Amino acid sequence: MTHDWAALDRDLRGFLPPKAVVSKRQELLVYDCDGLTMDRHCPPLAVLPETTSQVAKVISCCNRHQVPFVARGSGTGLSGGALVETEALLVITSRMRSILAVDLPNSTITVQPGVINSWITRAVSGEGFYYAPDPSSQVVCSIGGNVAENSGGVHCLKYGVTSNHVLGLEVVLPDGTISSFGGGLAEMAELDLRGVFIGSEGTLGIATSVTLRLLRSPEHVTVLLADFASMESAGEAVRKVTAAGVIPSGMEIMDNFMINAVNDLLGVEEYPRDSAAVLLIELDGQLAEVSAATDHAFDLCNQAGARSIRRAEKPEDRERLWKGRKSAFAAVGQISPTYYVQDGVVPRSSLSTVLSKIERLSNEYELPVANVFHAGDGNLHPLILYKSSSKDVEEKVKSLGADILRECLEVGGSITGEHGVGADKRCYLEWMFSPEDLETMNLVRLAFDPHGMANPGKIFPTPRSCGESGRRKMKMIVGEGENIREVDVF
Ligand SMILES: Cc1cc2nc3c(=O)[nH]c(=O)nc-3n(C[C@H](O)[C@H](O)[C@H](O)COP(=O)(O)OP(=O)(O)OC[C@H]3O[C@@H](n4cnc5c(N)ncnc54)[C@H](O)[C@@H]3O)c2cc1C
To answer: pTM for this structure?
Structure first.
Protein backbone atom coordinates (compact mmCIF):
# COMPACT_ATOMS: atom_id res chain seq x y z
CA MET A 1 0.00 0.00 0.00
CA THR A 2 1.40 3.42 -0.87
CA HIS A 3 0.88 6.21 1.60
CA ASP A 4 0.49 9.95 1.15
CA TRP A 5 3.48 11.00 3.29
CA ALA A 6 3.15 14.66 2.36
CA ALA A 7 -0.44 14.72 3.65
CA LEU A 8 0.55 12.94 6.89
CA ASP A 9 3.50 15.33 7.35
CA ARG A 10 1.17 18.31 6.92
CA ASP A 11 -1.38 16.97 9.40
CA LEU A 12 1.30 16.18 12.01
CA ARG A 13 2.73 19.70 11.72
CA GLY A 14 -0.78 20.99 12.44
CA PHE A 15 -0.47 20.09 16.12
CA LEU A 16 3.22 19.29 16.78
CA PRO A 17 5.98 21.91 17.15
CA PRO A 18 8.04 22.26 13.92
CA LYS A 19 11.12 20.55 15.41
CA ALA A 20 9.04 17.54 16.47
CA VAL A 21 8.58 16.37 12.86
CA VAL A 22 11.63 15.01 11.02
CA SER A 23 11.25 14.59 7.29
CA LYS A 24 14.69 15.29 5.79
CA ARG A 25 16.44 12.09 4.70
CA GLN A 26 19.83 13.13 6.09
CA GLU A 27 18.24 13.64 9.52
CA LEU A 28 16.20 10.45 9.31
CA LEU A 29 19.32 8.38 8.60
CA VAL A 30 20.21 8.61 12.33
CA TYR A 31 17.27 6.27 12.93
CA ASP A 32 18.02 3.71 10.20
CA CYS A 33 18.94 0.98 12.71
CA ASP A 34 19.03 0.15 16.40
CA GLY A 35 21.85 -1.76 18.17
CA LEU A 36 21.53 -4.48 15.50
CA THR A 37 23.51 -2.47 12.97
CA MET A 38 23.49 -5.23 10.36
CA ASP A 39 19.88 -4.47 9.41
CA ARG A 40 19.16 -0.95 8.20
CA HIS A 41 16.10 0.82 6.78
CA CYS A 42 15.65 4.57 6.76
CA PRO A 43 12.19 5.59 8.06
CA PRO A 44 10.16 7.79 5.69
CA LEU A 45 9.07 10.17 8.49
CA ALA A 46 9.63 10.53 12.25
CA VAL A 47 8.07 12.45 15.12
CA LEU A 48 9.33 13.37 18.59
CA PRO A 49 6.26 14.03 20.77
CA GLU A 50 6.58 15.33 24.32
CA THR A 51 3.29 14.41 25.96
CA THR A 52 0.77 11.57 26.10
CA SER A 53 -1.84 13.66 24.35
CA GLN A 54 0.59 14.41 21.50
CA VAL A 55 1.32 10.68 21.15
CA ALA A 56 -2.43 9.96 21.09
CA LYS A 57 -2.98 12.60 18.39
CA VAL A 58 -0.07 11.20 16.35
CA ILE A 59 -1.51 7.68 16.49
CA SER A 60 -5.02 8.91 15.62
CA CYS A 61 -3.48 10.71 12.66
CA CYS A 62 -1.75 7.46 11.62
CA ASN A 63 -5.11 5.72 11.76
CA ARG A 64 -6.76 8.38 9.59
CA HIS A 65 -3.99 7.98 7.01
CA GLN A 66 -3.79 4.19 7.49
CA VAL A 67 -0.06 4.51 8.17
CA PRO A 68 1.39 2.06 10.71
CA PHE A 69 3.86 3.26 13.38
CA VAL A 70 6.96 2.02 15.17
CA ALA A 71 7.92 3.21 18.68
CA ARG A 72 11.54 3.99 19.45
CA GLY A 73 13.23 4.85 22.73
CA SER A 74 17.02 5.22 22.69
CA GLY A 75 17.55 2.72 19.85
CA THR A 76 19.88 0.41 21.82
CA GLY A 77 17.74 -2.68 21.20
CA LEU A 78 19.69 -5.62 19.81
CA SER A 79 16.96 -7.43 17.86
CA GLY A 80 15.87 -4.80 15.34
CA GLY A 81 12.68 -4.02 17.29
CA ALA A 82 12.76 -0.28 16.54
CA LEU A 83 13.65 -0.83 12.89
CA VAL A 84 11.18 0.67 10.40
CA GLU A 85 11.17 -2.19 7.91
CA THR A 86 7.94 -1.41 6.13
CA GLU A 87 6.50 2.01 5.36
CA ALA A 88 5.68 3.32 8.83
CA LEU A 89 5.94 6.45 10.96
CA LEU A 90 8.69 6.36 13.59
CA VAL A 91 7.50 7.68 16.98
CA ILE A 92 10.54 8.55 19.10
CA THR A 93 10.11 9.06 22.85
CA SER A 94 13.44 10.71 23.57
CA ARG A 95 11.78 14.07 24.34
CA MET A 96 9.50 12.43 26.91
CA ARG A 97 12.08 12.60 29.68
CA SER A 98 10.25 13.94 32.74
CA ILE A 99 10.01 12.33 36.12
CA LEU A 100 6.29 12.81 36.79
CA ALA A 101 6.00 11.79 40.46
CA VAL A 102 8.13 10.35 43.25
CA ASP A 103 6.25 8.63 46.09
CA LEU A 104 8.90 7.47 48.57
CA PRO A 105 6.48 6.43 51.36
CA ASN A 106 5.07 3.91 48.86
CA SER A 107 8.43 3.29 47.14
CA THR A 108 7.26 4.21 43.64
CA ILE A 109 8.27 6.60 40.89
CA THR A 110 6.30 7.55 37.78
CA VAL A 111 8.21 8.58 34.68
CA GLN A 112 7.74 9.33 31.01
CA PRO A 113 8.99 6.53 28.73
CA GLY A 114 12.05 8.36 27.38
CA VAL A 115 13.63 8.63 30.85
CA ILE A 116 16.99 6.83 30.89
CA ASN A 117 17.21 3.78 33.14
CA SER A 118 20.12 4.99 35.30
CA TRP A 119 18.44 8.39 35.91
CA ILE A 120 15.88 6.67 38.15
CA THR A 121 18.46 5.51 40.68
CA ARG A 122 20.24 8.84 40.38
CA ALA A 123 16.98 10.66 41.23
CA VAL A 124 16.32 8.69 44.43
CA SER A 125 19.69 7.39 45.66
CA GLY A 126 20.10 10.37 48.00
CA GLU A 127 16.99 9.13 49.82
CA GLY A 128 18.36 5.59 50.14
CA PHE A 129 16.42 4.06 47.23
CA TYR A 130 17.33 2.53 43.85
CA TYR A 131 15.77 0.94 40.79
CA ALA A 132 16.91 -2.68 40.49
CA PRO A 133 16.76 -3.72 36.77
CA ASP A 134 20.11 -2.64 35.36
CA PRO A 135 20.77 -3.58 31.73
CA SER A 136 24.43 -3.05 30.78
CA SER A 137 23.11 -0.28 28.51
CA GLN A 138 21.49 1.47 31.49
CA VAL A 139 23.20 4.82 30.93
CA VAL A 140 21.51 5.16 27.53
CA CYS A 141 18.47 2.89 27.22
CA SER A 142 14.99 4.22 27.99
CA ILE A 143 12.42 2.93 30.45
CA GLY A 144 9.90 2.60 27.58
CA GLY A 145 12.38 0.35 25.74
CA ASN A 146 12.99 -1.63 28.95
CA VAL A 147 9.24 -2.18 29.37
CA ALA A 148 8.82 -3.19 25.73
CA GLU A 149 11.72 -5.68 25.89
CA ASN A 150 11.13 -6.76 29.52
CA SER A 151 14.81 -6.05 29.98
CA GLY A 152 17.09 -7.82 32.41
CA GLY A 153 20.47 -6.98 33.87
CA VAL A 154 23.11 -8.01 36.36
CA HIS A 155 20.84 -7.58 39.40
CA CYS A 156 17.88 -9.40 37.89
CA LEU A 157 19.12 -12.75 39.26
CA LYS A 158 17.95 -11.84 42.76
CA TYR A 159 15.43 -9.07 42.08
CA GLY A 160 13.72 -10.16 38.86
CA VAL A 161 13.46 -8.51 35.44
CA THR A 162 11.57 -5.35 34.43
CA SER A 163 8.11 -6.95 34.73
CA ASN A 164 8.71 -7.48 38.46
CA HIS A 165 9.25 -3.75 38.91
CA VAL A 166 6.53 -2.16 36.78
CA LEU A 167 3.38 -1.45 38.77
CA GLY A 168 1.41 0.57 36.26
CA LEU A 169 1.39 1.79 32.68
CA GLU A 170 -0.35 4.49 30.72
CA VAL A 171 -0.54 3.36 27.11
CA VAL A 172 -1.66 4.86 23.82
CA LEU A 173 -3.35 1.95 22.06
CA PRO A 174 -2.96 1.34 18.31
CA ASP A 175 -6.24 3.17 17.58
CA GLY A 176 -5.07 6.29 19.45
CA THR A 177 -7.07 5.85 22.67
CA ILE A 178 -5.34 6.27 26.03
CA SER A 179 -5.64 3.43 28.53
CA SER A 180 -4.15 2.53 31.94
CA PHE A 181 -3.01 -0.92 33.02
CA GLY A 182 -2.19 -1.71 36.64
CA GLY A 183 -1.55 1.19 39.02
CA GLY A 184 0.50 2.20 42.02
CA LEU A 185 -0.53 -0.85 44.07
CA ALA A 186 1.22 -4.20 44.22
CA GLU A 187 -2.04 -6.08 43.57
CA MET A 188 -4.88 -4.97 41.33
CA ALA A 189 -8.38 -6.38 40.72
CA GLU A 190 -8.26 -6.30 36.94
CA LEU A 191 -7.04 -8.67 34.21
CA ASP A 192 -3.25 -8.26 34.17
CA LEU A 193 -2.92 -6.28 30.92
CA ARG A 194 0.18 -4.63 32.43
CA GLY A 195 1.81 -8.08 32.30
CA VAL A 196 0.61 -8.64 28.72
CA PHE A 197 2.03 -5.30 27.58
CA ILE A 198 5.47 -5.77 29.18
CA GLY A 199 7.71 -7.55 26.69
CA SER A 200 5.34 -6.95 23.76
CA GLU A 201 8.07 -5.07 21.87
CA GLY A 202 5.98 -2.15 20.71
CA THR A 203 3.32 -4.35 19.07
CA LEU A 204 0.45 -3.44 21.44
CA GLY A 205 0.81 0.34 21.57
CA ILE A 206 3.10 2.98 23.04
CA ALA A 207 3.76 3.29 26.79
CA THR A 208 3.58 6.98 27.67
CA SER A 209 3.99 6.81 31.45
CA VAL A 210 5.40 4.07 33.66
CA THR A 211 5.07 3.60 37.45
CA LEU A 212 8.03 1.68 38.84
CA ARG A 213 8.78 -0.01 42.13
CA LEU A 214 11.77 1.39 44.05
CA LEU A 215 13.86 -0.68 46.44
CA ARG A 216 15.77 0.38 49.55
CA SER A 217 19.53 0.52 48.88
CA PRO A 218 21.16 -2.47 50.58
CA GLU A 219 23.03 -1.93 53.84
CA HIS A 220 26.07 -3.86 52.66
CA VAL A 221 27.47 -5.14 49.35
CA THR A 222 30.38 -7.48 48.64
CA VAL A 223 31.87 -8.57 45.32
CA LEU A 224 33.93 -11.70 44.74
CA LEU A 225 36.09 -12.23 41.67
CA ALA A 226 37.07 -15.87 41.18
CA ASP A 227 39.25 -17.05 38.32
CA PHE A 228 39.21 -20.54 36.84
CA ALA A 229 41.40 -22.67 34.60
CA SER A 230 38.36 -24.02 32.75
CA MET A 231 34.85 -22.84 31.88
CA GLU A 232 33.55 -26.13 33.36
CA SER A 233 34.87 -25.21 36.83
CA ALA A 234 33.42 -21.68 36.58
CA GLY A 235 30.07 -23.25 35.63
CA GLU A 236 30.41 -25.68 38.53
CA ALA A 237 30.95 -22.75 40.92
CA VAL A 238 27.72 -21.16 39.68
CA ARG A 239 25.89 -24.45 40.16
CA LYS A 240 27.30 -24.96 43.66
CA VAL A 241 26.48 -21.43 44.85
CA THR A 242 22.89 -21.50 43.64
CA ALA A 243 22.33 -25.10 44.80
CA ALA A 244 23.49 -24.07 48.28
CA GLY A 245 20.63 -21.57 48.45
CA VAL A 246 22.90 -18.53 48.34
CA ILE A 247 21.16 -15.93 46.15
CA PRO A 248 23.68 -13.41 44.87
CA SER A 249 22.34 -10.17 43.43
CA GLY A 250 24.45 -10.91 40.34
CA MET A 251 26.64 -13.69 38.92
CA GLU A 252 28.45 -12.92 35.69
CA ILE A 253 31.08 -14.82 33.69
CA MET A 254 33.60 -13.59 31.09
CA ASP A 255 35.67 -15.98 28.97
CA ASN A 256 39.37 -15.69 28.09
CA PHE A 257 38.76 -13.68 24.91
CA MET A 258 36.66 -11.16 26.82
CA ILE A 259 39.08 -10.99 29.77
CA ASN A 260 41.91 -9.96 27.46
CA ALA A 261 39.70 -7.59 25.50
CA VAL A 262 38.65 -5.63 28.61
CA ASN A 263 42.16 -5.60 30.10
CA ASP A 264 43.39 -4.15 26.79
CA LEU A 265 40.60 -1.58 26.58
CA LEU A 266 41.09 -0.34 30.15
CA GLY A 267 44.89 -0.68 30.08
CA VAL A 268 44.85 -2.70 33.32
CA GLU A 269 45.65 -6.24 34.45
CA GLU A 270 42.50 -6.54 36.56
CA TYR A 271 41.53 -10.03 35.39
CA PRO A 272 44.19 -12.81 35.06
CA ARG A 273 45.02 -12.98 31.35
CA ASP A 274 45.57 -16.75 31.29
CA SER A 275 42.27 -17.47 33.02
CA ALA A 276 39.71 -19.53 31.06
CA ALA A 277 36.88 -17.76 32.87
CA VAL A 278 36.35 -15.21 35.60
CA LEU A 279 33.23 -15.28 37.73
CA LEU A 280 31.96 -12.12 39.43
CA ILE A 281 29.58 -12.67 42.33
CA GLU A 282 27.83 -9.77 44.05
CA LEU A 283 26.05 -10.30 47.37
CA ASP A 284 23.90 -7.65 49.04
CA GLY A 285 21.66 -7.22 52.07
CA GLN A 286 22.23 -6.73 55.78
CA LEU A 287 25.83 -6.86 56.98
CA ALA A 288 25.66 -10.14 58.94
CA GLU A 289 23.74 -11.93 56.19
CA VAL A 290 26.09 -10.70 53.45
CA SER A 291 29.22 -11.62 55.43
CA ALA A 292 27.98 -15.19 55.98
CA ALA A 293 26.84 -15.59 52.37
CA THR A 294 30.14 -14.22 51.04
CA ASP A 295 32.16 -16.67 53.17
CA HIS A 296 29.97 -19.49 51.92
CA ALA A 297 30.27 -18.46 48.24
CA PHE A 298 34.04 -18.06 48.70
CA ASP A 299 34.32 -21.68 49.98
CA LEU A 300 32.13 -23.01 47.18
CA CYS A 301 34.26 -21.28 44.51
CA ASN A 302 37.32 -22.87 46.11
CA GLN A 303 35.64 -26.28 46.06
CA ALA A 304 34.85 -25.78 42.35
CA GLY A 305 38.58 -25.25 41.71
CA ALA A 306 39.06 -21.46 41.69
CA ARG A 307 42.73 -20.55 41.19
CA SER A 308 42.36 -17.27 43.06
CA ILE A 309 39.54 -15.29 44.65
CA ARG A 310 39.48 -11.56 45.40
CA ARG A 311 36.99 -9.98 47.76
CA ALA A 312 35.93 -6.32 47.52
CA GLU A 313 33.90 -4.49 50.16
CA LYS A 314 34.64 -0.79 49.63
CA PRO A 315 32.61 0.91 46.84
CA GLU A 316 35.74 1.91 44.88
CA ASP A 317 37.15 -1.66 45.05
CA ARG A 318 33.83 -3.16 43.96
CA GLU A 319 33.63 -0.70 41.11
CA ARG A 320 37.10 -1.73 39.91
CA LEU A 321 36.06 -5.38 39.76
CA TRP A 322 32.85 -4.54 37.86
CA LYS A 323 34.39 -2.02 35.47
CA GLY A 324 35.68 -4.64 33.02
CA ARG A 325 32.34 -6.47 32.93
CA LYS A 326 30.52 -3.20 32.31
CA SER A 327 32.93 -2.33 29.48
CA ALA A 328 32.70 -5.74 27.81
CA PHE A 329 30.77 -4.71 24.67
CA ALA A 330 32.94 -1.61 24.22
CA ALA A 331 36.07 -3.78 24.56
CA VAL A 332 34.89 -6.05 21.76
CA GLY A 333 33.98 -2.98 19.69
CA GLN A 334 37.59 -1.83 20.03
CA ILE A 335 38.81 -5.09 18.45
CA SER A 336 36.07 -5.37 15.85
CA PRO A 337 33.71 -2.43 15.28
CA THR A 338 31.27 -4.88 13.71
CA TYR A 339 29.92 -7.65 15.89
CA TYR A 340 26.63 -9.48 16.36
CA VAL A 341 25.33 -10.08 19.90
CA GLN A 342 23.40 -13.30 20.35
CA ASP A 343 21.07 -13.78 23.34
CA GLY A 344 20.04 -17.31 24.32
CA VAL A 345 19.11 -19.00 27.56
CA VAL A 346 20.09 -22.43 28.87
CA PRO A 347 19.50 -24.21 32.16
CA ARG A 348 22.43 -23.29 34.46
CA SER A 349 23.47 -26.97 34.56
CA SER A 350 24.08 -26.88 30.76
CA LEU A 351 26.23 -23.73 30.69
CA SER A 352 29.58 -25.43 30.12
CA THR A 353 28.17 -27.96 27.58
CA VAL A 354 26.68 -25.21 25.44
CA LEU A 355 29.77 -23.00 25.77
CA SER A 356 31.93 -25.89 24.46
CA LYS A 357 29.54 -26.25 21.53
CA ILE A 358 29.78 -22.51 20.84
CA GLU A 359 33.56 -22.85 20.77
CA ARG A 360 33.29 -25.73 18.29
CA LEU A 361 30.89 -23.74 16.09
CA SER A 362 33.18 -20.69 16.24
CA ASN A 363 36.04 -22.85 14.88
CA GLU A 364 33.86 -24.42 12.20
CA TYR A 365 32.63 -21.04 10.96
CA GLU A 366 36.09 -19.48 11.43
CA LEU A 367 34.49 -16.54 13.24
CA PRO A 368 35.77 -15.48 16.69
CA VAL A 369 33.19 -15.51 19.49
CA ALA A 370 33.63 -13.68 22.82
CA ASN A 371 31.43 -14.66 25.76
CA VAL A 372 30.12 -12.52 28.59
CA PHE A 373 26.95 -13.58 30.29
CA HIS A 374 24.49 -13.50 33.16
CA ALA A 375 25.64 -16.90 34.46
CA GLY A 376 23.18 -17.09 37.35
CA ASP A 377 20.25 -16.81 34.90
CA GLY A 378 21.85 -19.07 32.28
CA ASN A 379 21.53 -16.12 29.89
CA LEU A 380 24.32 -16.33 27.29
CA HIS A 381 25.58 -13.41 25.21
CA PRO A 382 28.03 -14.76 22.63
CA LEU A 383 29.42 -11.83 20.60
CA ILE A 384 30.30 -12.91 17.07
CA LEU A 385 33.06 -10.73 15.61
CA TYR A 386 33.24 -10.09 11.88
CA LYS A 387 35.14 -7.65 9.73
CA SER A 388 33.55 -7.29 6.34
CA SER A 389 29.98 -6.12 6.01
CA SER A 390 29.40 -7.99 2.75
CA LYS A 391 26.05 -9.80 2.52
CA ASP A 392 27.84 -13.21 2.43
CA VAL A 393 29.71 -12.56 5.67
CA GLU A 394 26.59 -11.21 7.39
CA GLU A 395 24.65 -14.31 6.35
CA LYS A 396 27.43 -16.51 7.72
CA VAL A 397 27.36 -14.57 11.01
CA LYS A 398 23.58 -14.92 11.28
CA SER A 399 23.85 -18.61 10.46
CA LEU A 400 26.35 -19.10 13.29
CA GLY A 401 24.01 -17.15 15.60
CA ALA A 402 21.11 -19.42 14.58
CA ASP A 403 23.20 -22.56 15.21
CA ILE A 404 24.04 -21.26 18.69
CA LEU A 405 20.33 -20.84 19.41
CA ARG A 406 19.67 -24.39 18.17
CA GLU A 407 22.18 -25.61 20.76
CA CYS A 408 20.35 -23.61 23.44
CA LEU A 409 17.04 -25.20 22.46
CA GLU A 410 18.63 -28.65 22.36
CA VAL A 411 19.21 -28.46 26.14
CA GLY A 412 15.76 -27.02 26.89
CA GLY A 413 16.66 -23.32 26.63
CA SER A 414 15.21 -20.34 24.79
CA ILE A 415 15.99 -18.29 21.67
CA THR A 416 16.01 -15.06 23.67
CA GLY A 417 16.64 -14.07 27.26
CA GLU A 418 16.28 -10.31 27.36
CA HIS A 419 16.96 -8.73 23.96
CA GLY A 420 13.62 -9.70 22.45
CA VAL A 421 12.56 -11.26 19.17
CA GLY A 422 12.12 -8.10 17.09
CA ALA A 423 12.90 -8.52 13.42
CA ASP A 424 15.99 -10.60 14.01
CA LYS A 425 14.56 -13.74 15.59
CA ARG A 426 10.96 -13.95 14.40
CA CYS A 427 11.82 -16.82 12.05
CA TYR A 428 13.17 -18.85 15.00
CA LEU A 429 10.00 -18.53 17.04
CA GLU A 430 8.58 -21.58 15.32
CA TRP A 431 11.46 -23.64 16.70
CA MET A 432 10.04 -23.07 20.18
CA PHE A 433 6.30 -22.74 19.72
CA SER A 434 3.62 -24.77 17.96
CA PRO A 435 1.38 -23.10 15.33
CA GLU A 436 -1.40 -23.15 17.95
CA ASP A 437 0.81 -21.34 20.50
CA LEU A 438 1.71 -18.71 17.93
CA GLU A 439 -1.87 -18.29 16.83
CA THR A 440 -2.98 -17.74 20.44
CA MET A 441 -0.30 -15.06 20.88
CA ASN A 442 -1.33 -13.43 17.62
CA LEU A 443 -4.98 -13.38 18.72
CA VAL A 444 -3.94 -11.40 21.80
CA ARG A 445 -2.08 -9.00 19.54
CA LEU A 446 -5.12 -8.67 17.29
CA ALA A 447 -7.33 -7.85 20.27
CA PHE A 448 -5.16 -4.77 20.85
CA ASP A 449 -4.40 -4.03 17.23
CA PRO A 450 -6.93 -5.46 14.73
CA HIS A 451 -5.52 -3.46 11.82
CA GLY A 452 -1.81 -4.25 12.34
CA MET A 453 -0.85 -0.63 13.06
CA ALA A 454 1.77 -1.12 15.81
CA ASN A 455 5.27 -2.28 14.83
CA PRO A 456 4.04 -4.38 11.91
CA GLY A 457 5.90 -7.55 11.02
CA LYS A 458 7.77 -7.81 14.32
CA ILE A 459 7.97 -10.83 16.64
CA PHE A 460 5.74 -13.22 14.70
CA PRO A 461 6.97 -15.23 11.71
CA THR A 462 5.29 -14.22 8.48
CA PRO A 463 5.46 -15.92 5.09
CA ARG A 464 7.00 -12.72 3.68
CA SER A 465 9.81 -12.53 6.23
CA CYS A 466 10.49 -16.24 6.79
CA GLY A 467 9.44 -17.96 3.55
CA GLU A 468 6.43 -20.23 3.27
CA SER A 469 7.89 -23.42 4.87
CA GLY A 470 4.43 -24.90 5.32
CA ARG A 471 3.50 -22.23 7.86
CA ARG A 472 -0.17 -21.67 8.53
CA LYS A 473 -1.33 -18.18 7.76
CA MET A 474 -2.94 -16.26 10.62
CA LYS A 475 -6.63 -15.61 9.93
CA MET A 476 -9.01 -13.10 11.40
CA ILE A 477 -12.76 -12.60 11.18
CA VAL A 478 -13.68 -9.01 10.29
CA GLY A 479 -16.84 -7.08 9.46
CA GLU A 480 -20.43 -7.35 10.69
CA GLY A 481 -23.71 -9.00 9.64
CA GLU A 482 -23.64 -10.12 6.02
CA ASN A 483 -20.21 -8.57 5.52
CA ILE A 484 -18.42 -10.94 7.89
CA ARG A 485 -15.34 -12.41 6.20
CA GLU A 486 -12.07 -14.15 6.95
CA VAL A 487 -8.83 -12.33 6.10
CA ASP A 488 -5.14 -13.20 6.30
CA VAL A 489 -3.33 -11.00 8.77
CA PHE A 490 0.22 -9.65 8.85
C1 LIG B 1 25.92 -2.32 24.94
C2 LIG B 1 24.55 -2.87 25.17
C3 LIG B 1 24.30 -3.60 26.32
C4 LIG B 1 23.02 -4.13 26.55
N5 LIG B 1 22.79 -4.82 27.71
C6 LIG B 1 21.56 -5.28 27.97
C7 LIG B 1 21.29 -6.00 29.19
O8 LIG B 1 22.17 -6.21 30.03
N9 LIG B 1 20.04 -6.44 29.38
C10 LIG B 1 19.04 -6.22 28.48
O11 LIG B 1 17.91 -6.65 28.72
N12 LIG B 1 19.26 -5.56 27.33
C13 LIG B 1 20.48 -5.08 27.06
N14 LIG B 1 20.71 -4.40 25.89
C15 LIG B 1 19.61 -4.22 24.92
C16 LIG B 1 18.82 -2.89 25.04
O17 LIG B 1 19.59 -1.88 25.66
C18 LIG B 1 17.51 -3.10 25.78
O19 LIG B 1 16.67 -3.94 25.03
C20 LIG B 1 16.74 -1.79 26.08
O21 LIG B 1 15.62 -2.06 26.88
C22 LIG B 1 16.27 -1.07 24.83
O23 LIG B 1 15.85 0.22 25.21
P24 LIG B 1 15.79 1.40 24.13
O25 LIG B 1 15.25 2.60 24.80
O26 LIG B 1 17.09 1.56 23.48
O27 LIG B 1 14.70 0.79 23.14
P28 LIG B 1 14.68 0.79 21.54
O29 LIG B 1 15.83 0.05 21.00
O30 LIG B 1 14.46 2.15 21.05
O31 LIG B 1 13.36 -0.06 21.31
C32 LIG B 1 13.29 -1.41 21.69
C33 LIG B 1 11.87 -1.94 21.48
O34 LIG B 1 11.00 -1.28 22.36
C35 LIG B 1 9.93 -0.66 21.64
N36 LIG B 1 9.63 0.57 22.37
C37 LIG B 1 10.49 1.57 22.70
N38 LIG B 1 9.85 2.49 23.43
C39 LIG B 1 8.58 2.07 23.59
C40 LIG B 1 7.44 2.58 24.25
N41 LIG B 1 7.47 3.73 24.92
N42 LIG B 1 6.29 1.87 24.19
C43 LIG B 1 6.22 0.70 23.52
N44 LIG B 1 7.27 0.17 22.87
C45 LIG B 1 8.43 0.85 22.92
C46 LIG B 1 10.45 -0.48 20.23
O47 LIG B 1 9.41 -0.46 19.28
C48 LIG B 1 11.33 -1.70 20.08
O49 LIG B 1 10.55 -2.82 19.70
C50 LIG B 1 21.98 -3.90 25.61
C51 LIG B 1 22.25 -3.15 24.46
C52 LIG B 1 23.50 -2.65 24.23
C53 LIG B 1 23.74 -1.85 22.98
So the answer is: 0.93
